[in-house]
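Hi all, long-time lurker, first post. I run a small reading group and we've been trying to get comfortable going from sequence to structure in the token notation. Rather than ask abstract questions, I figured I'd post a concrete chain and ask someone more experienced to write out its structure so we can walk through it together at our next meeting. Sequence below, copied exactly:
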Amino acid sequence: MTASKRRLDRSPARRSCHMDLSLAERDYLLHHGALGHSRHTILHYERTFQTFHRFLEETVRDATTEALSGATMNAFALWLRETPTRGWRGDTHRHEAGIHGVLSDLRAFARWLFAEEKLAAMPNVSVNKLPEVFFPILSDAELDRVFATRELSPATEIGTRNRSMIAFFLDTGVRRSEAAGLTLEQLDLGEGQARIIGKGQKERFVFFAPSTAALLRRWLAIRGEEPGSLFWLSHEGIKMVFNRVRTQAGLAVFHPHQLRHTATTQLLAGGADTHSVRRMLGHSSVLTTERYLSMSASDLKAKHAASIPF
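-- Answer (accepted) --
Happy to help. Here is the structure in token form:
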């Protein structure tokens, strides 16, 4: 009997099974935990499930796996666009990236349930395409404003810590969760490198310049040599620092991933090949790395001028 026939033979059993959605979600989160996925990943799925349950409640739908149908997913996508995330704060629209993430989560969840024979049929989850745009990077002038803020003042202990941390982000392109999990034991100032534990517990090395190493030494002179978190900041603590810097520098946008974009662009623009940059950033595919390449209009104009034959 072929695999396709075996699947057809099992289809009646699939159709007769409608699990409580919360139980199915619990099993899925346990699955991610068993695979060693990060707490951040699990929290992301938990938030998606909370949003989906809010939709089911407001639209009077049963919270069972039967709700994971193509028609319901289309209604959910429309609901995401029309329902404010935080109405009491005046927010009325979700970003396309946020909608994309939620729908992608539910599609992955449905695929897992179908593979586990806990779902009658795989629904058609139409995930919105993200617009092709340049990733936001910081100009030299904006970076000067960042390093001139009170939050990064070298005259204070906290400023010394924050200054070294921002420089480390900018030099290495690490993720926020990776910086929060970085310990003193993973740092090698002599070699100008750090061992990073990234998504899926994958390890890689990142490298930083002597100027960044000098800033880190100043911070370590204050911090001391005891083991533990390098910057003494949690995931949320780093977010708070970035928010304060953004306000003080007068920037519309300033977040760790922006520095990741900036670092990637600088590496590629400086001549580093995409495969090497992919390994340094911990990307699973070189196509992801290429999407990080951002250039300003002046950069593109200069490259155009250098390439034309007259």
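A couple of things your group might point at:
The radius of gyration is 23 Å.
The first strand starts at residue 187 and ends at 188.
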